[in-house]
Automatic annotation (TrEMBL):
The lineage of its organism: Bacteria, Bacillati, Bacillota, Erysipelotrichia, Erysipelotrichales. CDD domains: PBP2_Ngo0372_TcyA. Residues 40-259 form the Solute-binding protein family 3/N-terminal domain. This is Amino acid ABC transporter substrate-binding protein. Pfam families: SBP_bac_3.
Length: 263
């Protein structure tokens, strides 16, 4: 009798484990269905990173990535709802389920690939190295060794600066990094050429300059939590449609003054 009871407990436990696993997989696979049923996809973005994600003069959230998010939502047949947060908090919000994805010039690096799956790339941009206008010591990335680079500590640009031997000075935004550069509290800062270009167009008298550009481009993708293949494929289909219609290219020209949607 005891042996039979133990056997029943073992079978029941195994069934529970399988059921839990199945429920977990289903919950993960059904994220697209949940989004469609709610009629809303929740997107994390900074809101302080022009021209990708910022507030215009009237206080409205806009930017290349924001508008891409809205168009993806349209293709999915839902509304886009944005949650603004600092870069360091965006992926934590995604991990907790507070947002469905992050659209904010996200690069598909190896560390993120351990936790997320990615859409196809939708932009290809060069990185740039910015220094003060009178700086003659830093003329290329190799000159960063031992220099202070103002960077978000969890960003790909920070990792790139560190790979050249730079000592990172933590910041929350690109504007803050340029402020440290202008005040002399940092020697350099790295970011996308498009972001720096937009800053220089808006601040033509800023005492900074672009010293160098990367030879290769980095691409932006839309991340989803692991296991959400249906959502990832739907986002890919949406990006395909936006490319075919020319809307993706039009947004790039509008916010960057160039088409960065083609490799």
């Amino acid at each position: 009798m005891m042996k039979m009871w133990k056997k029943m407990i073992a079978l029941f436990s195994a069934a529970c484990v399988l059921a839990a696993c199945g429920a977990s997989d289903t919950a993960s696979d059904d994220q697209l269905t949940q989004i469609q049923e709610k009629g809303v996809i929740v997107i994390g973005t900074e809101g302080t990173y022009a021209p990708n994600s910022y507030h215009d003069e009237e206080g409205n959230l806009t930017g290349f990535d924001v508008e891409v998010g809205r168009l993806i939502a349209r293709e999915l047949g839902v509304e886009a709802q944005f949650v603004e947060s600092s870069w360091d908090s965006l992926f934590a919000a995604m991990d907790s389920g507070r947002v469905d994805t992050v659209i904010n010039e996200v690069e598909a690096d190896e560390e993120r690939a351990e936790k997320y799956d990615f859409s196809q790339p939708y932009t290809y941009v060069h990185g740039a190295l910015m220094v003060s206008s009178d700086n003659t010591d830093i003329q290329g990335f190799a000159d960063l060794d031992g220099m202070r680079a103002a960077q978000n500590l969890t960003s790909s640009w920070g990792a790139l600066a560190e790979s050249y031997g730079a000592q990172l000075v933590g910041v929350d935004s690109m504007d803050q990094s340029i402020q440290l550069l202008e005040s002399g509290r940092a020697d350099a800062t790295l970011n996308s050429e498009t972001a720096f270009g937009d800053y220089l167009r808006k601040h033509p008298d800023a005492p900074v300059k672009i010293a160098a550009r990367t030879e290769t481009t980095t691409s932006s993708v839309v991340p989803v939590r692991k296991g959400n293949e249906a959502l990832r494929e739907a986002i890919d289909d949406a990006l395909d449609a936006l490319r075919a219609s020319g809307e993706l290219s039009e947004l790039s020209q509008r916010f960057f003054g160039m088409d960065v949607t083609q490799e």
